[in-house]
């Protein structure tokens, strides 16, 4: 094949000219040509510009108020001539920023890797076969298929369209969808007027079509202006807001305390320079420097754990919101059930004109096949080996029909419908219009009026019955039978048709055109429950989380599934979608308390339920898969998309379930709570030593003693030695049982339990350490040795505190304190750093320390044991007071 020369003004070409220019054809490119073009054009992807991303992450490390406090301390120390302290504090700030940058950048890269699990796929015709490939493998000349909910993967010229409407706001700014056409257009028109073109990144709102790819990757229109497409600014999650409030409050208190210490020191006769240096020591001592790093690590570890369980978190900070979830709104099909539907029965309601029941059933199956969007990738194989791409229900129809020797490719006869209205949860049915010909031999003797066109419909039986020829009495009789089938647990689907003489001006969305349908009958499907999903529901309920089933299925089917899952459904627990759509917010809120099931729910109904729950203070997690679910998923605190769902739902979701399984939602909530628990443990651990330095310095000033520690010693302990056990807490799991009620982070990051442990145990241990300092000096021990002892004790006891912080609720004696290998390693590393500061000559000069004898070390370890006892006592007292 000769060289391919691109680009051209493809919107001016007709179908034949288009194929000529692109050297392609309706049956697609050959495999040999695909290989050649992939080498020429490369992957269909736009390389993201990351050059400012790393700089942004690095700058973000300096935005914490706690880091601002340390920067102020650096500037003050330098301006007062204390260059050693200034240099050391500055070094700590830089190392903190470096470690924070490393961890956050690593977490962001890991998150990008996880997003790679969510592959974008597209239907393409190659070598005469329709199949599904990864979108990045598209090349110019490929013939692609797009339908409602798809994100267009490349620029393409449309060759077939059925009610195809595209949202092109990304490119043109136009908020209304654009109706697409097939006909050639004039050359000198703007991009917004090229209505026979598809553009990469735009969204299919309704309808479907086929098109020939004209540009990929950076050559697409969106690729040319990629720099203008910036990521949306994301709002803060509840944890980010709570943590920011905590940090700002802490920073304010720290600055006030430092100012107070400065005044006390100066009033005690110290020079202004000496007073400032003391204030700097307090500033440094009160800042939990490792907190920003620990937060990033805790979130990143939680996200990676969840990925191993088939849950991909798309936004790192959203992981913690999972732990606050109080209500889960879940779909039924594919989430609670396996989406492996098997046809259990066909019920005929019109069969008198057929030779026998079998012929009538075969005709009904054939009519149903006309409405499907599924693709058989290997139609030449036997039906048992077919690889079918499509919705589970559609695939079940194809497989069931094949067992009756009614083959999907034969029924369709290679034709596309003239018009197609795909199934969506709003209409609850699909509709298609075909022109019958000699190729459709199976249909020739089945129609009463021999009209050339047929309207075929598949969907909710009650919807199709509304438009049927049946009398009102007959409709009620049929509906009673359908309800009986649904109550047994079957998913019941209706099939209807109508013969048409002319379709030139017919609007397939105008429901007046449906009047007079022949309601042929129903197909009933059995969809078995997912293994273990009942246990997963009971587990989240024990954790205090409500589960509400929102389904488009019939009420009877949904009740049967709920009962099988062990969920008792009474009349007051049920809401019908039609009723919900008519209710105002106050009426919905009045029903929420007892609500367990909404049947025949619309996408707007899902949104109304989510909003009503949020207005009552609930934190809502919700799943969905269709384009119409996207607004509700975006509204929910945690939007959960099915891995098999549409592109747009996955794009707005916070969490994507690769296995579409409710068990993964339960695991996500459990991991979210684990993230919050570990973060709170880390905050308590890093805050536990704040009072020590304040007590020691303020106490020394008040009684006229020399300062027991300087700023460098405090910074060495707080940042270099103690941060690592805080990070090790990110790896904790399995010690604490799942709470019986949701963790509402909106009420604040610092719980009463945390305050009790930090303040009560912290004040007692601080007072004890100061008392020891005062007694040893009064007893006449060498001041340098006593100060080194205080520094050593301050460092070692906070390290050993890591064992106690592995659970804020359980006693140290209720779990294996050595069960976290990361904690053991971090404590050993911290002890080595403390030994270096005390015994290595260079660091002795830097920190003003001296060698300690074994007696002092034993005493230091004894104090650590006493401090752990105080922490455990405070846990016990709090539990007893609050039980």
From TrEMBL:
SMART domains linked: Cation_ATPase_N
TM ranges: 62-80, 86-102, 246-265, 277-301, 683-707, 713-735, 756-776, 788-808, 820-842, 854-873
KW Protein biosynthesis (keyword) present: no
GO biological process: intracellular potassium ion homeostasis; intracellular sodium ion homeostasis; potassium ion import across plasma membrane; proton transmembrane transport; sodium ion export across plasma membrane
Molecular function via GO: ATP binding; ATP hydrolysis activity; P-type sodium:potassium-exchanging transporter activity
InterPro entries: ATPase_P-typ_cation-transptr_C, ATPase_P-typ_cation-transptr_N, ATPase_P-typ_cyto_dom_N, ATPase_P-typ_P_site, ATPase_P-typ_TM_dom_sf, ATPase_P-typ_transduc_dom_A_sf, ATPase_P-type_domA, Cation_transp_ATPase_P-type
Keyword Transmembrane helix on entry: yes
Compartment(s): Endomembrane system
Membrane topology: Multi-pass membrane protein
One family name in Pfam for this protein: Cation_ATPase
UniProt entry keywords in alphabetical sequence: ATP-binding, Magnesium, Membrane, Nucleotide-binding, Phosphoprotein, Translocase, Transmembrane, Transmembrane helix
A cellular component term, taken from the record's GO annotations: endomembrane system
Cation-transporting P-type ATPase N-terminal domain sequence ranges: 9-82
Highest taxon in the source lineage: Bacteria
UniProt record similarity statement: Belongs to the cation transport ATPase (P-type) (TC 3.A.3) family. Type IIA subfamily.
UniProt name for this protein: Cation-transporting P-type ATPase N-terminal domain-containing protein
Highest classification ranks of the organism: Bacteria, Candidatus Harrisoniibacteriota
